[in-house]
TrEMBL record:
Residues 1-21 form the signal peptide. It comes from Streptomyces solicathayae. SUPFAM superfamilies: Sporulation related repeat. The keyword Plastid does not apply. Residues 73-161 form the SPOR domain. This is Phosphodiester glycosidase family protein. Transmembrane segments: none annotated. Keywords: Glycosidase, Hydrolase, Signal. It comes from the Bacteria. GO terms for molecular function: hydrolase activity, acting on glycosyl bonds.
Length: 524
């Protein structure tokens, strides 16, 4: 269903006092629901820090539970194990015909992808669905019959298809005005990078006023470029968006980043594949040298490389074990040990370099005990300018970009949120469909906007597509904005109230790789 305007988001901007002009609507406004935004509460967290919660939109008579039937990657492949959520029209027609032969009444629906800054709008694929029910239990019962007949699939709520801009939403906006607020925004990850922590524990343990989830995390560690207080702690997903904090965490900006780390041994040098991650596993892809199946960013896809050099710093914690070679360096870069297996602890102030595959041979040839190894770290912004990594520099790479220079701007391909290849299930489920989202932005007055929208909760809050997330941030007044980790990770908390949103996981808030914390100024 392609319907509604974004007038409710304009109303949201009005409630928050954002000085933005109302844009032209996306489609004809439907008169069936109010477009008003209802402010359910605004609290002052600290002078210059406010938390506003709003209820937007409302349920529609057309919102229904349905059975979504999977399609096979191979058009002639088996249907009982099919895993694609959408595919070519011919494949969808074949599955629909098979369903009709089994006594069902399927419908074939087109899924369109909106225009992004680097991709035109168009048809993403075709889905096959059966039934429309007000009650999820009815759709679940039909799904059991569908599976018993030799098909695969699941249930879906149509309000979460990402096409309804006036679906029910619960929105939580933390606004920091540094003209009044004398504190900072900073990152934290707990005792070690190699491990996860709950946001409420980090808020309580650090004396923070509030916090929100931050980066993606894989193998219990943050994924993407992570620079904290000038120290490069995480590998870049080359070209993805990032949040840069300076002025002691009181100034923020959005850009895209690449990073390269060179290991030098005498006159020889080699590029390091990663920093503080499991060797051979490149989550989100976008790495350097020999990664398969691609070196382009691909969100939530694990690329692999059988020959890698990975640096570990003391912040990591317990290092990965396994076959390969390992050099242990002291604080001056002198090699104190060379091991023919991996897993040594990282010396205080020093580092280790783990190597697998052919890279292990390079390390054995160049890292003799007593020799000195050095690292050259180069972080570049979107214009190719080198970013000085000073103690006042923090960068969190997440993505995609949502707003740049005051305009909606989603670099969908370059940020890796459109999957390469024929199977566009990920693109459909993560990018096009509605999900819980966490976002961060800066408005024209330099105020910071930290936003969480709940999702996957039928009739309460459906969530947003990436396109609607971008438009929402613009309507809230963001001049620059970026998407943070989302889904079940989306969580916001304050010291006074605890968790303020409704995380979508049935078990509540997740343990996270790292977080963003609003901290008061330290007592002098």
């Amino acid at each position: 269903m392609q319907r509604r305007s974004l007038s409710l988001m304009v109303a949201a901007a009005t409630v928050l006092g954002a000085a933005t002009a109302a844009p032209a609507p996306l489609a004809e406004a439907a008169p069936t629901r109010s477009s008003a935004a209802t402010t359910t509460g605004t609290t002052t967290v600290a002078p210059g820090v406010t938390l506003t919660t709003m209820a937007l939109g409302g349920q529609d008579a057309d919102d229904r539970w349905t059975v979504h039937v999977n399609l096979p990657v191979d058009p002639a492949g088996p249907l009982a194990t099919a895993a694609m959520a959408l595919g070519p029209r011919a494949t969808a027609d074949r599955v629909a015909a098979a369903l009709r032969d089994s006594g069902f009444a399927p419908r074939v629906e087109e899924v369109r992808i909106p225009a992004y800054a680097d991709r035109r709008a168009g048809t993403l694929g075709w889905t096959v669905r059966i039934g429309r029910y007000a009650d999820a239990a009815d759709a679940t019962a039909l799904l059991a019959r569908v599976k018993a007949s030799g098909f695969a699939g699941g249930t879906r709520y149509t309000a979460q298809d990402g096409t309804d801009s006036r679906a029910p939403q619960k929105l939580h906006v933390l606004r920091l005005d540094f003209r009044t607020f004398d504190g900072t925004l900073e990152t934290n990850y707990g005792p070690a990078l190699n491990g996860t922590e709950k946001l409420t524990d980090l808020v309580a343990g650090t004396g923070a006023l509030a916090g929100v989830n931050a980066q993606w995390f894989y193998n219990s560690a943050p994924g993407g470029l992570y620079v904290k207080d000038g120290r490069l702690l995480g590998s870049a997903t080359q070209g993805r968006a990032g949040l840069k904090l300076t002025r002691g965490g009181r100034s923020a900006g959005i850009d895209t980043y690449t990073a390269h780390v060179t290991l030098r041994a005498g006159t020889d040098s080699v590029e390091i594949d990663g920093v503080n991650r499991v060797p051979g596993e490149i989550w989100n892809c976008g790495g350097v040298g020999g990664d398969l199946p691609t070196q382009k960013p691909q969100h939530d896809l694990k690329c692999t490389d059988s020959s890698e050099l990975v640096r570990f710093t003391p912040e990591w914690g317990r290092t990965p074990t396994g076959a390969g070679t390992e050099a242990v360096l002291d604080a001056n870069g002198l090699v104190t040990a060379v091991n023919t297996s991996r897993g040594a602890g990282v010396p205080a102030g020093g580092s280790t370099v783990q190597a697998i595959g052919e890279s292990a041979d390079w390390l054995l040839r160049h890292a003799a005990v007593g020799t000195k190894l050095t690292f050259d770290e180069r972080v570049l912004d979107g214009r190719g300018r080198r970013v000085r990594l000073t103690p006042d520099t923090t960068i969190l790479q997440v993505g995609p970009t949502l707003v740049r220079d005051g305009k909606v701007s989603v670099n969908a391909r370059r940020d890796g949120i459109i999957r390469e290849g024929a199977d566009q299930t990920f693109t459909y489920n993560w990018t096009v469909r509605a999900n819980p989202r966490s976002m961060i932005g800066v408005d024209d007055r330099g105020r910071l906007l930290v936003v969480v929208v709940d999702g996957r909760q039928a009739g309460y809050s459906e969530g947003l597509s990436i396109a609607d997330a971008a438009r929402l941030m613009r309507r809230l007044g963001a001049r620059e904005a970026m998407n943070l980790d989302g889904g079940g990770s989306s969580v916001m908390a304050t010291a006074a109230s605890g968790i303020v949103n409704r995380p979508s996981d049935a078990t509540g808030q997740r343990s996270l790789g790292n977080v963003l914390l609003v901290r008061p100024r330290p007592a002098s």
